[in-house]
Amino acid sequence: MHAEIIAVGTEMLLGEIVDTNSKYISEGLADLGIDVYYHSLVGDNETRMEEVISLAAARSDLVILSGGLGPTPDDLTKQVVARFLQRKLVVDQVALRKISAFFEARKRTMTPNNKVQAMYIDGAVSLPNEVGLAVGNFYHSDQGADFLLLPGPPHEMETMFDQTAKPLLASQYQRSQILSTRLLRFYGIGESNLVTKLADLIDEQVNPTIAPYAKETEVTLRLTATGQTEAENQQLLDDLEEKISARVGRYLYGYGENNSLPAVVVEKLKQRGLTISAAESLTGGSFQAAVTAIPGASAVFPGGFVTYAAKQKEQMLGIDADLIERYGVVSEQTARAMAERTLALTDTDLALSFTGVAGPEELEGHPAGTVWIGLAGKQIPTSARLYSFQYDRSRVRNSAVMTGFSQLYQALAQIDFKR
Hints:
By secondary structure, this protein is an alpha/beta fold. The protein contains 15 helices and 17 strands. Strand 7 (136-139) and strand 8 (146-150) form a beta hairpin.
């Protein structure tokens, strides 16, 4: 079973928006054991859409299109697919009533073109849109490719795909064996280095399989096992994870799609009843923003400091002006002092500090990307580590923040914090 994904929208061809739907759908199909062989992107043009759809149907078992289900003249997806299948469009009355109620509640007139959003291909399954108006379509063919039509707005597409389309595909393409996946998340190691350390496991893989994915600040491994029972699959995954952890376990911090490094760190702090604060210079409060973005962060984070200028490091943190004058803002001594003073002022269990050069210009003779991250704690000695990030300004700041979380995670994993 293999699939092809077609993103529809001229705005993506113009570079006005990025196609994130195809990535999301591919990851979901991988969970179902459906291989994706092709991604295509086509504008809102009937002739070119017909060409892409015809090619996809000839070479793939399942063709998934996202976008072009709205009420405007350039929303043509269901019309073009219906014509290709030689089927007519019919109205989903439940969806039509929902659209009518939407306009009535807002005291607006519903125009005839809005009815298009409630239409689906005759013979297809109409997929409800829980967070929007345009219904989806799933058309199963006994002779050719199957078609799945999803809305373009990512929030609508993701909700429809997860709640309705994915379970439908799972039942439609039920496998004789059970498929199980596990996502391992790594920080502090690049994709090439990770793959090199696991080269023989990847080269020899049969069941389970290993698929690496590089993201902006981390690397993930998706492990996939097939077997007769879930218990059999979990044992296969456990055995493979044990082999992986023996080589690169120090970089493994979490599991799953949404289990980010900041979320893992905050949860570990909560479990141990510990608190954290920070003083930030080049990162401008981004670390503290990432902490407070996690639900329940108030239990571990009382507050912190943004001391962008040297004078604020002196006034807000009470760092000796002579120390900054002697060693500079971008130094181990300043990073250590920032962490220690933050710890004393906030009375938290741990404190991080960030000082360095985001760029693009040099500072104090240090090139852009030079970053010192300090860590102080009531039960650990103060330390500061030097990093060199070879990126643009935004990525230097982001990398510094994530490295701060990594430094904190390693400290929590290695040291027994008991009150």
